[in-house]
Design a protein that fits this description.
Number of strands: 21
Distance between the termini: 26 Å
Number of helices: 0
Radius of gyration: 20 Å
Low-confidence stretches: 1-22, 187-195
Strand content: over 45%
Mean pLDDT: 83
Helix content: under 10%
């Protein structure tokens, strides 16, 4: 995995929000990513009202000179967005204003079968955040408190850094009633919409580190006999988790930090191995009791 150094800059200079509801709090600052020659990602979690779909949103953008390659949507874990390889592209390329509220209308509204969605901004490669306003690079505005949406930042599309609980991204969703034919994003094989199939196989885990349980998410691009097992650092199998033929799609399985006899294992590094046809994936886990 390539080295990535992540700095989160909180530029503290209050600006009254313009063009949004009067009760919207002031912007406390903007936050972005610096230190990568490749793409990075910023994600917000949206709670979705039942029988409604996301049609667009307002967000506080830092630099109008920045073009975001695409906007992704995923369901992820309750603890984070998961692997961007498992997500679906909603829009792109797109841009916003400088140090200002901006608006994006989706070509296709999207709903969630599990009550929440992650909207993920892909940041352009080699575009670093250096300061607030025009020319300052890709960054999103944030509120102090929980008035906005919980946020995460990633430099590799798999490992996510949570924005502090005392801050939230300045993003306001726009909903429309859910109607037949709209895209419904799901973790499992609850829909036959081919757009929701993984673009490539993946295996990820969250939370990680964990205690005492973690959720393993994996995606298959075709049906196959599939096995998943946990191994210790000496290569000994700790517990089998999956051994069956699975359909193409997104799947989840939980490991509770126990061996095949139900006994809790020690704090240590473990490895989850996925084998499905010609697909072979390994995910490192850290159990901290």
């Amino acid at each position: 995995m390539r080295y990535f150094e992540l700095w989160v800059f909180l530029v503290l200079a209050g600006v009254v929000a313009i063009g949004v509801a009067a009760e919207t709090p002031e912007i406390a600052g903007v936050t972005g990513v610096n230190g990568s020659d490749d793409a990075a990602w910023m994600a917000v979690r949206l709670d979705m009202p039942e029988n409604y779909a996301l049609a667009g949103f307002l967000w506080y953008n830092n630099d109008s000179q920045v073009t975001y390659p695409q906007l992704l949507v995923g369901t992820g874990h309750t603890s984070g967005p998961g692997d961007v390889a498992a997500m679906v592209a909603l829009a792109g390329p797109f841009a916003g204003g400088s140090d200002a509220w901006s608006e994006l209308e989706l070509d296709q509204p999207v709903a969630a079968s599990l009550g929440a969605l992650y909207l993920v901004f892909e940041l352009p490669a080699e575009a670093e955040f250096t300061g607030r306003g025009a020319g300052g690079g890709p960054a999103l505005g944030y509120f102090e408190g929980t008035a906005g949406a919980p946020g995460w930042i990633s430099g590799d599309g798999q490992t996510w850094l949570r924005l502090a609980d005392t801050y939230s991204f300045a993003l306001e969703p726009q909903f429309v009633p859910l109607t037949e034919g709209m895209l419904v994003k799901s973790l499992g094989a609850e829909t036959q919409d081919q757009d929701l199939l993984p673009r490539e196989p993946y295996l990820t885990a969250g939370p990680n580190p964990f205690n005492p349980r973690t959720e393993l998410r994996f995606g298959l691009t075709q049906a196959a006999a599939t096995t998943i097992a946990v191994y210790d650092i000496r290569g000994r199998r700790v517990v089998p988790l999956v051994s069956e033929v699975l359909p193409a799609g997104h799947h989840t399985v939980t490991w509770t930090g126990s061996d095949n006899r139900g006994r809790g294992v020690a704090s240590e590094v473990y490895f989850v191995k996925l084998d499905s046809g010609r697909v072979h994936k390994t995910q490192r886990l850290l159990l901290l009791r």
